[in-house]
Write a structure and sequence with these properties.
This protein is mainly alpha-helical. It is 78% helix and 0% strand. The protein contains twelve helices and no strands.
Length: 260
Amino acid sequence: MSRLISKRSNWSLPYAIFLIFFVALPLVLVAMYAFQDADGRFSLEGFGKFFHDPDALKTFAVSLEVAIETTLLCILIGYPAAWILASKKYNRSAVTIILFIMPMWVNALMRTLATAQLFMMLDVPLGKGTLLFGMVYDFLPFMIYPIYNVLSKMDKSYAEAAQDLGASPATVFRKVTLPLSMPGVWSGILMVFMPTVSTFAISEFLTNNKFKLFGTIIQDNINNGMWNYGAVLSLIMLVIIGITTLLSKDKGASAEEGLI
């Protein structure tokens, strides 16, 4: 028993079991259902149905559009916020950082419900604008923190060397700070884009089901017992997320190597 405990590789066994049952097995089941028909026979009917369904394709395109717009808005708002948080000149208190962390202590569904109630109190019509507001509100911290972590750990000697050589503050930011912070930006893009493109609860509450996203179609098919077609849609979403992950890693590595 002592040998079993003392061997370091055995400590990874619980994590391996967890990954098998809660990550690998669900993915295998999704793939199995996606390539089967209702009778359990191998079939590509679900993929053909998706590519010939104008409503599904339109919803998929709308979901990508909303995810891209949300990600861009998070970058535009989140980068300056992260830069201010990481700057000792403009932020000298840890309280400011805690204020940005606090929204993440509240359940995302509760934040969404509270936002919907606020719009109703103010008589704001629910639609795409309220949806984007809710998306940015929920996912903005996931853009700020990766950028903040990179900026706060950045070697300040690069910026100081550029200033000593006569570079203006704008040039220092464009030539030094921005390229070195790109790994954090790409990490933030990944953390915002992936959940945004597959979400459904936020669109339901902040648009009163007037604005359907791809996650809503997946949920509707699963709830209606159409497991095979729901698995096809889930697999397509997983492929998109996987491609995004690979591109983000490549871009992050390229940005990090570009200056050094």
